[in-house]
Amino acid sequence: MAKRNRRVGYGLPVVLAIAVHVVALLMTMLRLPDSEPTPSSSSVVQATLVSDVTATDQAQYAQEARARTAQRQAEEAAQAAAEQEAQEAARQAAEQQAQEEAQAEEAERQAAAAQAEAAAQRRQQAAEQAAAERAAAEKQQQAAEAKRQAEARARADAEKKRQVEAAAKAEAEKKRQAEEKAKAEAEAKAEAKAEAEKKRQAEEKAKAEAEAKAEAEKKRQAEEKAKAEAKAKAEAEKKRQAEEKAKAEAKAKAEAEKKKAAEAAAKKAAAEALNNSIANEQERIANAQQSDQASNSFINLVKRAVEDRWHLPANADNGLVAQVRVRLGPSGELLAASITRSSGNPGFDRSATQAVEAAAPFRELQQLDAGLQRRFRDFNLKFTPGDIQ
User: Fold this and answer.
1) What are 173-204's pLDDT values in tens digits?
2) Whole-angstrom Cα distance, residue 345 to residue 322?
């Protein structure tokens, strides 16, 4: 049931508050008569007056003033009390009105709840009665249906039992046949498997033997190949070494022969040159009229012959100087060639003595006069990188 809305009335509290304020205002306006007002300073004559007020009058005035003050305070207190009472009255009235309205609403709510509960009980009773009627009808219908279903189940069970028995019989026969077939297949499969295993083992054995044989043959061929390669390599190396040795020997022999031929040619050329020089010198000596010229010619001949056979070392400095003492026999043969002043370079000194030895003998000595021969059988040659003196 819907709740009825009621407006809260505030008229009475407002009226009471206004009345209280009006009363307080009237009380403040109603005052006792005051004493005569004191004239302002503008109306007082500027003069010295003698007061005629007595002490009794002053006490009376003071008492009246205190009375007026007390009256005013009482009025103010009464006004405040009245206002407070009016506010309290208004508050209480509002609370009372609100409480009454709440009680009225609660009563209405309880009444509505009671009506709703009664209606709900009536509806519940009607529903329960209808449900009972439906339950009875359904119960009857269910009983009839249960009976029909029980009869159908009985027939179905009988048919099912017959079918189950037939199926069990057929299944047993099928199972027996399947077992016999499986047994036969298993025996055949076992025989085939044994035969296949036997065949596989034979094939694997033959394959292993073939692989072993092939591996042995391969290994033998590899060993023979390795031996052949090693032998061929050794023979090739031996042949190469022999060829290199032959080439080296041939090269050395050719170089030796070439060197020998070169030396022979050089010696022959030197001899021819020397012979030519000697012939020329002999002619000059024969034609010379003075012994100094003959001696100089002989020395020059010796110097040219030694220079032609002197091989200067590669590391010879320009500042090197070596002196060689040359001693000859009567026919110009070399008796000795020795270093009398060393250059400090053994190679340079050795090249100087070797040049003298290669240029000897000096047969031209025999063509000189006996006096000159004695003079030139022992002389010194000074060797420098640029000249022989």
Assistant:
1) 999 998 999 887 978 787 878 888 989 998 99
2) 9
